Amino acid sequence: MDFNSIKETENQQIFLPILEEKKVELFIKREDLIHPFVSGNKFRKLKYNLQEATKLKKKSILTFGGAYSNHILATAVAGKLVGLKTFGIIRGDELGKNITETIESNPTLREAQNQGMKFHFVSREEYRQKTSFGFIEKMKNKWGDFYLIPEGGTNFLAVDGCQEILTKEDAVFDYICSSVGTGGTISGLIKSKKKRQNVIGFPALKGNFLSEEIRKYVVKDATWKLQKGYTFGGYAKYDEVLIDFINNFKEETGVLLDPIYTGKMLFGILDLVKKDTFKEGTKILAIHTGGIQGIEGFNQELAKKNEKTINI
Known about the structure:
This protein is of the alpha/beta class. Helices cover 40% and strands 16% of the residues.
């Protein structure tokens, strides 16, 4: 995979009765099709960080994430592609008590390990201290020098990469929509959009800190906002309504959404369309940020509870 060769991804128009009724056009930018594992915003966020690690002559990368983290797996795959060792700090020390069982039952960590990533499992309390000098020094003593990429991959280089999502042709859209986790993707979109365009972010988690995170990367700009009413209770929270929506959306459009990010965003967009938030003739572009690899593990958890699963 050449990180310089992928420039643009296709915009797929979505045809649904509600869009026709309200005379609103919706397109999805298929960033999810870039690569099976390094897809969507993960590709964009890692691109310049990997270049920087190589420029600094680092031999390895260290990053952080949860047990089903898209970012962990993307970093493992991308690191192997460019010849860098990868280390993952994984939240949940209970997962490290029987590593063989954890790897066998967790498709995300299993694939990351297959790609050469080495893991260090920590308690949730220790994970909160993961960026402290003491913790980083402890990891350097364990694994040697490394290039550090934050949880979720967001930093200034990641935002630079996310500025490449939009193309000249995307200037026709009135609204650009994105799910929001750590704020990197939406920051890149805000910095690269046209003046007349508005950006709407759909947070995947509750809390007021996201606006402050985004403001670290963008100048004061009134043409973006966060729609906070579609978290479904918080990060990785869901209900049957969301699962049904994802399955129906796939059946009607052929586009698979993930339950953590893009499913909530599209649910929110179509709900806003129903509520006449957008005037007739509005053109909306929604960014598909990937995350499809995590569905298998998510479905395992649903099946354990005898709940409805996502049709892949």
